[in-house]
Amino acid sequence: MAIDKRTIAVAAAIAVFAATAGAYLLADLGGPAGRATDVANALPSDATTGADAGNPDGVTLSDTQLPSVKVEPAKEQEFPIEKTAVGSIDFNEDMTVQVFTPYQGRIIGLFAKVGDDVTKGQTLFTIDSPDLLQAESTLIAAAGVLQLTTRNLERLRDLYTTRAVSQKDLEQSVSDQQSAEGALRAARDSVRLFGKSDADIDHIIAARAADPTLVVPSPITGRITARNAAPGLFVQPGNPPAPYAVADISTMWMNANVAESDSPAFHVGQDVRVSVAAFPDRAFEGKVSTVGATVDPATRRVLIRSEISDPQHGLRSGMFANFVIRTGDPVRSPAVPYNGVVREGDGTMTVWVTTDRRRFVKRAVTVGQRHAGYVQILDGLRPGELIATEGALFLSNALATANR
To answer: Buried-most residue among 37, 168, 349, 355 (CB within 10 A)?
Structure first.
């Protein structure tokens, strides 16, 4: 037992000596060499990146790290002056028609449904119209009266040559025939108002048969956007809802509400570029057609309406849309690729500038718009200066590690 206690005591003394010697050794290595060892352990095994001795915001790369950073001169690029907002697609109400029947009656046939594309003059529905029946009956009667008066006038003219009738009777017959001609012309015009052609009118007179079926055609070429018609439904002129609604979809509306503070930048005629989720790789072009005259008191926003060209008929009413409106002429500014700008922890934006492609210095810049893969630099960088366009984040991490 005594031997075991002595053994333990000796071992403890050796451990204390070793700890003391290790402490002195670590104190000797606590200078810059020790910190460089820590940085080397934090980076890849071949890294020698560290803070530049002459600049606390500088980093020097080793030969093996140079390929990790791409260096290019800052270039000038045009950046458009634009405003962005969101809105929704709607039908062009200036090119949307509510199709009512011109005369009352009951619907007897439907020939189009919602979503169908129709052409101008194509039949939408037919109704049984008592007004048309009356007009055609009057037409047939007027045609019969004209035939009668015409034959009577011819007979009286023959008799007048032999003095069998007086001149007064002949003149009365001429007046009756002319009146019958006028009545027939009026009857033809009345039937023509129902959409009947001259050929249809001639057929009605020749057949002595009235057809009460009134055909209601599409007044424009477009797409059926609504249908409230049903067989047997009694319809009247101008009585809503309209049996059909047809919209010309070659152009659509894009309605958006922009902030009151942005409204002075918008004007009628400005170019608009619209994108929708259904066609992520396609842009629709148009122009601002309306700038609202009032501000919504609840939202403090102003209506901006644009007319969008859609010849392929891809847009649908109700689609959510993002739009960009050009509000001024493009400006030329220094530009840096997205990967060349780093957002620091305090929110500042920085780029890495170099003169020899090995030593890099961090520089704060003021950024503007983003366009076509580039960030606009408003202040802090001149065109032609060499910057890290790829690997800027690596340089920032290397500097932070070296400073630690």
So the answer is: 349
CA distance 102 to 86: 41
Instruction: For residue 258, give every residue at least 6 positions away whose Cβ sits within 8 Å of its Cβ, in sequence order, or none.
Output: 83, 85, 266, 301, 302, 304
Taking phi over 0 as left and psi of -120 to 50 as alpha, with beta for the rest, 29 belongs to alpha
pTM for the predicted model, two decimal places: 0.59
> Distance between CA atoms of 225 and 223, rounded to whole angstroms?
6
Give me 282's structure tokens. 């396609």
**C-alpha closest to that of 125 among 238, 225, 233:** 233
**Token output for 404:** 């630690």
Instruction: Name the more confident of 28 and 249.
Output: 249
Least confident among 38-42, 121-125, 396-400: 38-42
Is the omega angle on the peptide bond into residue 231 within 30 degrees of 0, that is, cis?
no
184 and 237, same structural domain?
yes
Q: Are 237 and 99 in contact (CB under 8 A)?
A: no
Q: Could you tell me what percent of the chain has a pLDDT over 70?
A: 86
204-246 tens-digit pLDDT = 999 888 888 899 999 999 999 999 999 999 999 988 899 999 9
The helices-and-strands tally (H runs, E runs) of the chain is 6, 22
Cα separation, 88 vs 290, whole angstroms: 15
Strands (DSSP E) along 74-122, which ranges? 75-91, 96-99, 105-110, 117-118
Cα 157 off chain centre by: 76
Residue 234 and residue 147 share a domain = yes
Range of the domain at 151: 98-246
Are 238 and 271 within one domain?
Answer: no
- Token couple for 87: 């809105």
User: CB-based contacts of 343: which residues, under 8 Å, 6+ apart?
Assistant: 349
pLDDT of 118 over the 70 cut: yes
pLDDT value at position 52?
53
Residue 314: name the closest of 272, 289, 270, 277 by CA. Answer: 277
